[in-house]
Write a structure and sequence with these properties.
heterodimer; A: alpha/beta; nine-stranded mixed sheet; 10 helices; 19 strands; globular; B: alpha/beta; Rossmann fold; six-stranded mixed sheet; four-stranded antiparallel sheet; binds adenosine-5'-triphosphate; binds magnesium ion
Chain lengths: 426, 250
């Protein structure tokens, strides 16, 4: 008889011990069992077929560990930088590099009694309704806590490399970022497949709290192998006058589902969300954003762009909720897609729920094809068609790429994108 | 250099060029004038290899049949079209694409690619030629450029790519008098024994600065009259009606 994956995960949970948050995690496990994996009838997942995730039993883990040298070779921008490597769901300390001026990082188990962790861990994730967040919470034993104390502004970015590893393994990565009053930091996440990864799943849940006046940049590069899976749930909570900026570039992965929820809880917050996704082959790339305006006079801005070819499917679902008290909210959203072939599909859906009356809110979703006039112009100058197409595609992606701060990380992303674009020509 | 015989071209069943013939020898400057809608831009587009036309007739470039060539093959062989309506391409900088284009052309010619330093040097001198600020070349192609700036950018690109045959579609339209002089000066400096020009224009004024060897009237998709530079003056004075009358069989 075929094993029921959920049963298998449950018995695995029960066999585990030394849970840092026993009550919370047991409850999460119950929720996961109750909810099960979402199917087509779940509105939130309607256009995101996840059968390959639902139907297999992912292995618990794999003990392959990358060396520092391997990691730096693959991601040259890490040289001299502060970074943590999370491999197969736990912190690979040997491969990580944390200079003294880096922000304080600790494992969740050792930091569990820290008042900040007690106050924030699990407080923002919608564990009660999201099966992946619940699954993650149940198994989040080896996560990472990054804390920036009040007033500390860290100029150099911190990298977190999330590697899936081993055949058919699932890694539950858990991140908690706490930026204090007027603190500032820039966190960069790279998700990629490890050397022995094969059809493995990264299930990541991140919670990011910004104190009054804090500033956090959250850059994500998702470049797993073409048969890997990823579900990334990110929950951001902003106190007044804080600024949160996320930039998500997805180039790899067979199925990638990103949920990014931001709650602007205090006045005068600013929230920026940029996204770029390149789909080819049979990729499914889904970005679900949720911008929750709970307080007056906040600004939010979303720009998501996609290039989708072959049989790839992309979803952008942009939900904006403006609560009754959130007067004078400015909320902008734009989603633009280039369809590169007749079999590719994009579903772009704004979802506005506005309960305040003094609000400026704009949204737009476009799906188009390559600009023939521009293509002819470039070719008439001698550029071969393929090169001209790549150039125009890169130009389409430009305003998202441009939102990244300049430096070796951005160059790396640009190179990755450029290389990927060559594979989704028409 | 260019030999067009009995060119017929149309879109979606609508015939626009009706058996046009034109011969341009190396070093010559030909002006083409003609009323709106007579097919001038269509001719330019067909020459540059724009897709979407049904074309028949013979198109010889440098002694070779170019009818089946792609736009890039034509450009690499030395043909350049200065567009009547240059396209804006957000996110692509002029300098960046031009370097790639130049190297694609050089490669086709069996020449070594230019490196960044050589390219910058070349760009500097050609920008000076059309009195364009180097900031403009760094910006996205034509994005937010004024009408006149776009035209100047066309001539700058032309100067950079050093084509054998320059087809200029109403480059003078929208230029103020100073810009017109600058563009004309740029074009004149490119004139040479091995380089030919086909200049499409509505105005005699440009031809005061770029003196043509031949002037043709394109009417209803055909060249109905050819002459020397005085023909342009005559057209300026009398318009096109007399040609239409002329054309009618007696
Ligand atoms: N893609 C097209 N589809 C339909 N009709 C077209 C197309 N391109 C050109 N035409 C028609 O062909 C005719 C010639 O157009 P063309 O642009 O060549 O004229 P022109 O001589 O350059 O005019 P102008 O002086 O206004 O620039 C016009 O009637 C125009 O409407
Ligand atoms: Mg025209």
């Amino acid at each position: 008889m075929k094993t029921d994956p959920i049963k298998e995960y449950k018995s695995r949970f029960e066999a585990g011990n030394g849970k840092p948050f026993p009550a919370l995690q047991a409850e999460a496990m119950d929720t996961f069992v109750r909810l099960g994996f979402p199917g087509k009838h779940n509105e939130e997942w309607r256009y995101t077929p996840i059968r390959p995730i639902r139907e297999r039993v992912f292995a618990a883990g794999h003990d392959t560990r990358s060396s520092k040298q391997e990691v730096q070779q693959r991601f040259p921008f890490l040289e001299g930088a502060a970074y943590a490597v999370m491999e197969n769901g736990s912190w690979n300390r040997e491969a990580s590099s944390l200079p003294e001026d880096a922000p304080r990082m600790s494992g969740i188990s050792e930091a569990k009694d820290h008042p900040g962790v007690q106050a924030h861990f699990g407080k923002y994730a919608d564990t009660h309704i999201d099966p992946f967040a619940a699954w993650n919470t149940a198994f989040a034993d080896a996560g990472l806590v990054i804390e920036i104390p009040d007033g500390q502004r860290i100029d150099t970015p911190v990298y977190v490399v999330l590697l899936d590893q081993g055949p058919g393994a699932v890694a539950h990565n858990r991140l908690l970022v706490m930026a204090g009053h007027n603190a500032a930091c820039s966190i960069r996440l790279i998700t990629a497949s490890g050397t022995v990864a094969d059809q493995s799943l990264l299930n990541t849940t991140s919670e990011v709290v910004l104190g009054e006046g804090a500033k956090v940049e959250w850059d994500v590069l998702q470049m797993q192998d073409e048969n890997a899976f990823q579900v990334a749930n990110t929950y951001v909570f902003q106190h007044g006058r804080s600024v949160f900026t996320s930039r998500t570039v997805t180039t790899g992965g067979r199925i990638v589902r990103n949920k990014l929820h931001i709650r602007a809880a205090g006045e005068h917050c600013e929230s920026n969300m940029y996204g770029l996704y390149l789909g080819s082959g049979d990729q499914v790339i889904d970005n679900h954003t949720g911008m929750f305006h709970a307080s007056p006079r906040c600004l939010s801005n979303q720009l998501y762009k996609g290039l989708v070819g072959d049989r790839a499917q992309a979803v952008f679902n942009g939900r904006i909720v403006v609560e009754r008290d959130a007067q004078q909210t400015n909320a902008y959203q734009s989603s633009k897609n280039l369809l590169m072939g007749p079999d590719a599909a994009v579903t772009a859906k704004p979802q506005l729920e506005i309960f305040a009356d003094d609000v400026r809110c704009t949204h737009g979703a476009t799906t188009g094809q390559l600009d023939d006039a521009a293509l002819f112009y470039l070719r008439s100058r001698g550029l071969p068609r393929d090169e001209a197409v790549s150039m125009l595609n890169l130009a389409f992606a430009f305003d998202v790429l441009e939102s990244f701060n300049e430096g070796p990380f951005r160059s790396f992303i640009e190179e990755t994108v450029r290389a990927r674009l060559k594979e989704i020509r028409i | 250099m260019l030999d067009i015989q009995n060119l017929v071209a149309g879109v979606e069943g609508k015939q626009i060029l009706n058996g046009l013939s034109l011969r341009v020898k190396p070093g010559e400057v030909h002006a083409i004038m003609g009323p709106n809608g007579s097919g001038k831009s269509t001719l330019a587009g067909v020459l540059a290899g724009k897709e979407g036309y049904e074309v028949s007739g013979s198109l010889m470039f440098d002694g070779k049949d170019m009818a089946e060539w792609s736009p890039e093959e034509r450009a690499q062989a030395g043909l350049f079209l200065a567009f009547q309506y240059p396209v804006e391409i957000p996110g692509v900088s002029t300098a960046n694409f031009l370097k790639e284009a130049l190297n694609a052309i050089r490669k086709a010619r069996g020449e070594e690619p230019v490196d960044s330093k050589q390219f910058l040097q070349l760009m500097k001198s050609k920008l000076a030629l059309v009195e364009m600020d180097k900031e403009m070349a760094r910006r996205s192609v034509n994005e937010g450029f004024s009408g006149g700036e776009k035209k100047r950018n066309e001539i700058f690109q032309m100067a950079m790519l050093e084509p054998k045959l320059c087809v200029m579609d109403e480059t003078d339209s929208g230029l103020d008098i100073d810009a017109l002089k600058i563009v004309a000066r740029g074009v004149n400096s490119l004139r040479g024994e091995q380089r030919s020009f086909v200049i499409i224009t509505h105005y005699q004024r440009l031809l005061d600065y770029i003196v043509p060897d031949h002037v043709h009237v394109l009417y209803d998709g055909r060249i109905v009259k050819s002459g020397g530079k005085e023909l342009a003056l005559e057209l300026e004075e009398k318009g096109y009606d007399w040609i239409r009358d002329d054309k009618q069989p007696a």
